[in-house]
Structure formats: C-alpha cells, structure tokens
Amino acid sequence: MSEQTMLAAVVTGFGGPEQVALAEVPAPRPEAGQLRVKVTAAGLNPVDGAVRAGVFGGAGQRLGLGWDVSGEIDEIGAGVSGWNTGDRVVGLHYGPVKPLGTHAQYVVLDATAVAAAPATVDAVTAAGLPLAGLTAARAVDLLELAPGSSVLITGAAGVVGGFAVQLAARAGLVVTALAGADDEEYVRSLGATGFVRRGEAPAGPVDGVLDAAVLGEAALGSVRDGGVYVGLIPNHAPAAERGVRVVEQEVAADGEHLARLVALVDAGALTLRVAETFPLGEAAKAHAHLGTPGVRGRIILTA
C-alpha cells in the first residue's frame, strides 16, 4: 500500500454487520488548525451501529465509522501550536455522516478536539474515553443539582452510565444506579449508594434522572415534581410534566473538557472498562459483537 492511501472501515449500504467493509482510500491530510493522528485504537460505539443501519441517513454515500480515537500525532496543520509529532493523544471525531471516521489507520481532527492521552492506561484502554466520557460529563453538568441531591442513573452498568455514576458521585450527588441484578456490586464500586434492579422503580422520587438507558417516560416518572430529567439522545426525550425540567445533551468535540477527564483517569478517579478488542480488519466481526447481550465495557478496534 502506498504512503498516499490507508485502510478504513466504511459502509456504502445500510443493514447489519455484513455492510461493514475495509476499503483502501486516500489518507487524509490536515488543513489549517488540524492534526493528523496515526490511529492506535478506536472505540466502537452504539452510534456506529446506528450509522451502519441508516438511522442518520447518507444513502448512496460512503460513510466512515468511528468517533473515538487514541494514537499519535504524525502531521500538524498550519497555525497549530502546543503539539508535536509523536505526542500521544485521545480525541473525538464528531458527526454520524462523514466520509471517514476513526476506524481507519489515520484520522484528521481539529486541534481543539484532542487532549494528551492518559499516562496511566494504555492506548487501547484510553480509546474508550472520549465519546462516552464527554457524553456522561455533559449530562451530569446538565442536571444542575446541588451536592446532596438525589439522582437515578439508568443503564448504570453501561459505558456511559458507568462514567455518569462516577462523575455524579464525585460531584457530591447521592446516586441510585438502575442496572441488571448481576451488576449491583460493580455499580456500587463506582460510587452508587442505592441500587434498583432493571424493570423496577426506586422506592421514592428523586431530584433528577440521568437516563443512559433511554427509558423515557418510565424514567421521568421517578423524578419528583419540579425535578430534572436529562436524556442522552437528541429529540428522544419524553414530554415535560409536573414542572420537571427536561433537557437533552448533545456531545461536542471539546479537547479542554476531555483533558479534564484524562486528569481524572490519571488520578484514579475515573475507571475505564474494555470489553474486547478486534483488529481493524475484523470490523464487521466487531459490529456483530456490538449487539451481543451482556457486553460490559467498550469494544475497541486496533489499527
């Protein structure tokens, strides 16, 4: 393969994992304000499965996959300062409809979308941080609850939910985790002081809900009058009722915020969890694994 091309996981039609193909494409080059990262590892997120299934449109186009990246800077665009080639970074490549994503050998990102990689975990583990971590952090911020307030976090054993439990507990909130019965010990280890089994409701109303499991109205019903509900998927929140403030987060490629999460990882205050790794050439197999019940942690592709 020439220096001008690279391998990337893409889809050109919608459907199941069989739609994911490995293509040889021109390697991207950074423009002003951008960096090129040689990919070491990249997270596989549920949003990638949604892109593959056509949820976001883009019919007739070649669509790249992947939002998370961990790797090394290998080329720097004009006007970028503070970075050097060889620097280890993590970053977020925002956007569901794009010709190339992070499931590739190289990716170009805005310099503002990356942060120095954690020093205390390897590149594979670090690849699971950007999308889920930024999503959870923004959702906890949007709760706008004072320390001592109660919050129910649904899907607490998932990647986003697990980050949210840790960040909410760190913010001084009293966390009740909703998850499967087998996950109680795990979510309590993250900082939850209360636990509710999936399919059940908390004993009493809570000040806020962070709905990582996208339960919608069922989760909203657990919020006290005048409380807050935070949803994680734009345009999927239930209608407000009883004075409950209903808000939705939408993640952003924010390198400064990501750097704060990296600092928490290095301080031992934010735990990362990898479920399984696949080489880039087995991206379709990884997508098939994405839908397997009971997967705990992020699936990672290695370039």
Automatic annotation (TrEMBL):
<dbReference type="Pfam" id="PF08240">
    <property type="entry name" value="ADH_N"/>
</dbReference>
<dbReference type="InterPro" id="IPR011032">
    <property type="entry name" value="GroES-like_sf"/>
</dbReference>
<dbReference type="InterPro" id="IPR036291">
    <property type="entry name" value="NAD(P)-bd_dom_sf"/>
</dbReference>
<dbReference type="InterPro" id="IPR020843">
    <property type="entry name" value="ER"/>
</dbReference>
<dbReference type="InterPro" id="IPR013154">
    <property type="entry name" value="ADH-like_N"/>
</dbReference>
<dbReference type="Pfam" id="PF13602">
    <property type="entry name" value="ADH_zinc_N_2"/>
</dbReference>
<feature type="domain" description="Enoyl reductase (ER)">
    <location>
        <begin position="15"/>
        <end position="301"/>
    </location>
</feature>
<protein>
    <submittedName>
        <fullName>NADPH:quinone reductase</fullName>
    </submittedName>
</protein>
<dbReference type="InterPro" id="IPR050700">
    <property type="entry name" value="YIM1/Zinc_Alcohol_DH_Fams"/>
</dbReference>
